[in-house]
């Protein structure tokens, strides 16, 4: 299990300050949801955590080691499903091993039996074992995103980063995908960061929440601390009343509510 420290993280793009002196620590195994309006810096935070972007100032440490480049134990799931439509769910899942098996072996599907089992286990984890031979392009958006989760799991990560994984999905599929993500994260003891727009889904599945506004961290707390006032503060003038669903238990049971969309 992997512990993350973000220390004085600033990321500038020219004159734009996308992240402004952001610091926090996340113990191993936490499921963190990053909230904030469009442009608040969520993707930049996740991409910096993944090593795809380097900080302008500050540092990210993973188990004490400075993050200086992408590493195989940190897997990223993208907004767009980023899977290959012409390949089956199984082949897409198997391709998650590219970071460890090497590009050529992965393309030629020369991975060892263990890797192939891992790809099937990951599909099973996201409820798609029966669809393993189905071409990704013929699957629903929610199923494709679950293939994306499976592929990330085959990478054998310790840290899972999901940038708006349900942005393009209808509410039912979004809940289903989030359920699988949370279940996979718990099952494999992953430290997980997930950026989301939908506050009600965030509250249902999140454990800890980090709120960004204009690149600054303006909230960091657990479920009970994420009050309507905090949400109003994060989202400003937009109507947040409908986003705030009370009485959803403690979120621990959220993974029991996985739908089959
Ligand atoms: N590659 C880039 N070049 C220039 N500016 C960028 C780049 N990436 C992000 N930005 C800027 O940094 C700020 C934060 O963007 P970011 O994409 O992190 O926000 P976000 O909260 O993820 O938004 P969204 O919810 O719309 O995805 C924005 O002002 C954005 O325009």
UniProtKB/TrEMBL annotation:
InterPro entries found in the cross-reference section:
AAA+_ATPase, ABC_transporter-like_ATP-bd, ABC_transporter-like_CS, ABC_transpr_PhnC, MetN_ABC_transporter-like, P-loop_NTPase
Keyword Hydrolase among record annotations: no
Q: Which Gene Ontology CC terms are recorded? A: membrane
Q: Which UniProt keywords apply?
A: ATP-binding, Cell membrane, Membrane, Nucleotide-binding, Translocase, Transport
**Pfam families with a match to the protein in the record:** ABC_tran
Q: Which CDD domains match?
A: ABC_PhnC_transporter
Residue stretches making up the ABC transporter domain: 4-239
Q: Which GO terms describe its molecular function?
A: ABC-type phosphonate transporter activity; ATP binding; ATP hydrolysis activity
- State whether keyword Translocase applies: yes
Query: Per its record, how is this protein called by name?
Result: Phosphonate ABC transporter ATP-binding protein
């Amino acid at each position: 299990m992997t512990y993350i420290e973000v220390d004085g993280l600033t990321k500038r793009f020219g004159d734009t300050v996308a992240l402004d002196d952001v610091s926090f620590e996340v113990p191993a195994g936490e499921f963190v949801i990053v909230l904030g309006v469009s442009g608040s810096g969520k993707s930049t935070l996740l991409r910096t955590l993944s090593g795809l972007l380097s900080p302008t100032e500050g540092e990210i440490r993973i188990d004490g080691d400075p993050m200086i480049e992408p590493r195989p134990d940190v897997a990223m799931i993208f907004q767009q499903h980023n899977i290959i439509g012409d390949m089956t769910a199984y082949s897409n899942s198997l391709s998650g091993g590219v970071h460890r098996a090497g590009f050529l072996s992965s393309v030629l599907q020369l991975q060892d039996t263990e890797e192939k089992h891992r790809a099937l286990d990951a599909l099973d984890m996201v409820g798609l074992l029966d669809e393993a031979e189905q071409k990704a392009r013929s699957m629903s958006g929610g199923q494709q995103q679950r293939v994306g989760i499976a592929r990330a799991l085959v990478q054998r990560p310790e840290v899972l980063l999901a940038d708006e994984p349900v942005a393009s999905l209808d509410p039912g599929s979004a809940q289903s995908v989030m359920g699988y993500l949370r279940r996979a994260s718990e099952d494999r003891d992953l430290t997980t960061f997930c950026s989301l727009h939908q506050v009600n889904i965030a509250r249902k599945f999140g454990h800890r929440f980090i709120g960004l506004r204009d690149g600054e961290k303006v909230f960091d707390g657990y479920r009970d601390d994420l009050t309507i006032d905090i949400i109003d503060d994060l989202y400003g003038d937009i109507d947040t009343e409908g986003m705030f669903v009370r009485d959803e238990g403690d979120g621990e049971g959220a993974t029991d509510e996985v739908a089959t969309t």
